Automatic annotation (TrEMBL):
<dbReference type="InterPro" id="IPR023170">
    <property type="entry name" value="HhH_base_excis_C"/>
</dbReference>
<dbReference type="InterPro" id="IPR014127">
    <property type="entry name" value="CHP02757"/>
</dbReference>
<dbReference type="InterPro" id="IPR011257">
    <property type="entry name" value="DNA_glycosylase"/>
</dbReference>
<dbReference type="Pfam" id="PF09674">
    <property type="entry name" value="DUF2400"/>
</dbReference>
<protein>
    <submittedName>
        <fullName>TIGR02757 family protein</fullName>
    </submittedName>
</protein>
Amino acid sequence: MKNAPILKALLEETIAECDHLARRDHDPVGRVWEYENDDDREVAALFASSLAYGQVKVLRNAIVQALAPLGPHPAHTLRVTPLEDLVTRWPAFTYRMTRGEDLADLAVALGITLRREGSLQALYRARIPHDTDRPEDAGTLARAHHLQAASHFVQTLRQRRHRRELTRGFRYLLPDPADGSTCKRLHLFFRWMSRGPDGIDLGLWPSLAPHALVMPLDTHTSRLCRYLGLLSRKSLDARAAVEVSERLAALDPEDPLKYDFALCHLGIGRRCIHRRSEDHCPGCPIEDACTL
């Protein structure tokens, strides 16, 4: 990118200006940090990220309601509760595309996984090549390996669902990268697992290096990325998410997604309203690189 040095400096300034811990209370990951044990955080993170669509205040309430039936130690609950009993724990849950039956499918799949593999990380790690520490595996190849492992992770969880039919609601709750969509919420989960711990991301999976991550791209962040020259692709799909990831990697090869939280919260905090405004644009940390 021609403006890479300028953009990098502005994005670093954006990170510095973002009060991460204050913003965490307005982010789906906030509920996850309330658990003390890593195995509970891992489970809670998949529930929370899977429901991270819609208005933030509403989705955070949905996350609280979704996790409540699993008690203070969701990983333990999933390991020891009979699967037929797990199915009954969300009889009245409804949040937009997601119903209680979808959460029951997810709970059963996670319960089986925790009993068989011991952790969600172990299921993910099963499809990562053992020789990925070579220098040439950085960047593009590492992301390709990650996407393959992510697809296997999702497909296995889908196969372990309770209901015989793979419903539209459960497919939406747990999207497969192989289908070609951005899979924003799934990549958000992987970011939480890989990066940190830094008060936002949890850093629970040493098997997933930050340089392999894919940007959790949605409508709002894709607009910001276009304004900044990080995205040229018109379609909002998996290839767009990879394009943004690769361009961010040109700014920081080891940790390209360190800019994601601050960029996302420019939209969540109404700093960016996606149109030129003398009330909003002056003083924005990315204004000098923005083409809006």
